[in-house]
Design goal:
Layout lengths: L11 E4 L2 E4 L3 H22 L6 H21 L12 H17 L7 E2 L4 H26 L4 H24 L5 E2 L13
Antiparallel strand pairs: 1-2, 3-4
């Protein structure tokens, strides 16, 4: 099997059910999701097998779900069943709540940093935000699965919480933005 097909040599690519220019906003969106998936793979590699086993397993699931997001965006016509569901979003919300309750309280904005894994998870967060912005543009032009946008929105929060846990479980402080006012209120006890 040849990996090269030469069908994209003139700047077009295939969606499921049609062809578009390679700079079509749908291609930009699912291409960014693919880029994100690469960084998720890097984060998996960097996570400690014992202290962060749960995060590692979740990230493997997330890699498959990111392919689902790309698949839902790669259809030229809106006549197919979608893969991304509200249940996937609910799972992310539950994990975010667990990690945020486990992580140390924060009062200021956090900069990407700490452990290599936490830093990569922050990169995942920022790429997710870019993908989310692109999907907003896609939905202005095409009918899409609204759950993809919601999933990406929640996923960026998940990566923030996971980065904080990656630092906390390795006993590494988050990097606070030193010019930040105290912007996060602590719950009353």
């Amino acid at each position: 099997m040849n990996i090269y097909t030469k069908t994209g040599d003139k700047g077009q690519t295939s969606l499921i059910g049609g062809r578009v220019n390679k700079d079509d906003i749908r291609v930009e969106a699912y291409g960014t999701i693919d880029e994100l998936n690469g960084f998720v793979g890097q984060a998996i590699y960097q996570l400690d097998e014992t202290t962060l086993k749960d995060v590692k397993e979740e990230l493997i699931t997330i890699q498959h779900e990111l392919f689902d997001c790309g698949s839902d965006l790669a259809f030229a016509k809106d006549d197919h069943p979608y893969k991304v569901t509200n249940d996937m979003i609910s799972v992310l919300e539950k994990r975010i709540d667990v990690y945020m309750s486990e992580a140390p309280a924060i009062e200021r904005f956090i900069l990407p940093g700490g452990t290599p894994a936490a830093t990569t998870l922050h990169i995942c967060r920022t790429i997710t935000r870019r993908a989310e912005r692109l999907v907003v543009g896609v939905q202005r032009e095409y009918k899409i699965n609204a759950a993809v946008l919601q999933y990406l929105n929640r996923l960026s929060d998940y990566f923030f919480a996971a980065a904080r846990i990656a630092n906390a479980r390795e006993n590494v402080q988050d990097v606070e933005y030193i010019r930040s006012a105290k912007v996060f209120k602590q719950p009353k006890k």
